[in-house]
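Encode chain A's predicted structure.
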Amino acid sequence: MKDIDKRIFYIKVWIITENQPLHKLRNFKKRGWRKYHLDHIVSISHGFLNGLSPEQIGGMSNLRFIPWKENIRKGSTMTEASHRALRRIKRIKNK
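Encoded structure for chain A:
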């Protein structure tokens, strides 16, 4: 059952993500294969494992475009930027 829940979470996050005004993000015009990738600063898997909502993970405050190699290297690792984004998300959640 957990695999199905995780798959549903991923789908919800991507639906929310793609409905954001991504054109407002820095480097949007550089988006493409082997160019810049859309990055969920706090990864989708981290959001799922820690009970964050798809809206929090797919929201604009958790999105950015980064060079494709950096995004591939990062994977679901929690970087310093991820920790800052997570603190922002938690502050918003607690309001």
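The first strand starts at residue 36 and ends at 40.
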